[in-house]
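Tokens help. One example:
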Amino acid sequence: MKSIAVILSGCGVFDGSEIHESVLTMLALNQNNAEVHFFAPDELQPTVINHLTGEEKKENRSQLEESARISRGKISPLSSADASKLDALIIPGGFGAAKNLCNFAVKGSECEINKELLSLVRQMHQQKKPLGLMCIAPVMLPKMLNTSVELTIGDDTETIAKIESMGGKHIKCAVDDIVVDQVNRVVTTPAYMLAQSISEANIGINKLVKKVLEMA
């Protein structure tokens, strides 16, 4: 049974992990007989958003506690993840990927990656273990791997320009497809960067999970 890390960043599309993407990832992993280990930074979210109104709230929320809502309590601090015990790593999207796991939402191409995540991803990469990222999460790849990695976030021109200024190689991709960088062992899919429904998001996410497991 393959041991897969799923990195969460809170609970909700506007300030944490995208819930549909996270759950579809969990479902696909379970259906493909993988063992899932959830991790999230043990840190406060920089923003908390009211998902009914879209307005920012003056409130403190823990990324780890919020992520535990999605994982049904079974989750560990990101600092405890051990690359040697994992076969692959997957990061769902949601603004948490661009606000909490890094600060791309604020700093764009000058963004910095969460140090614990950076360390884990680089260890996995050195051990030739596959990485799967979806939605907005792939924007972190050029900084994380420090190389010209092939990836997709769909077709958003502004985001593509920032990815390419960081040294990434963007490939436009349909919602139901994946981009595979065989050299760097990275799989990406647009998910809700393009998806108009949960069913649409599911097709690409399923393909991503299957490909990551095949490479693991």
Summary: The chain is about 35% helix and 15% strand. Residues 198-215 form the longest helix (18 residues).
